[in-house]
Amino acid sequence: MAGIPGEDRDRISPGQDAPADMTRRVSSYDWSSTPLGPISTWPQSLQTATDAMLASGHAMCLAWGPERTFLYNDAYAPMLGARHPHALGKPFEDVWPDVWPEIAPLVDRGETSTFRDMPLLMTRNGYAEDTWWSFSYSPIRNEQGEVGGLLNVTLETTGRVLTERQRDKAVADLSRNEAKWRTIFETLREGFIHGEVIRNDAGEVVDWRYDEVNNAWYDLVGIERGCAVGRTIREVFPGIEDDWVLEFARLVDTRETIRFTRQVGTLGRWYDGVAQPAADDRFTVIFTEVTDRVLREQRNAAILELSDRLQDEGSVEDMAWAASEILGRELDVQLVGYGDVDPVAETITTHRDWTAGGAHPLGGTVRFRDYGSYVDDLKAGQVVVVNDAREDTRTRENAAGLEARSARAFVNAPVTERGIFVAMLFVCTAHVRSWTDEEVQFIRDVAYRLRSAIERLRAVEQQEILNGELAHRIKNTLSVVQAIAMQTLARSTDPAVIDEFSARLKALSSAHDVLLTRSWSAAGLHQVIASALETFALHRVSIVGPDLGIGSRTAMSLSLLLHELATNAVKYGALSVDEGRIAIEWAILETDGRPILDMTWTERGGPPAVEPTKRGFGSRIIRMGLTGSGGVKLDYASEGLRVEMNAPLDQVQQG
Question: What is the pTM (predicted TM-score) of this model?
Answer without folding.
Answer: 0.47
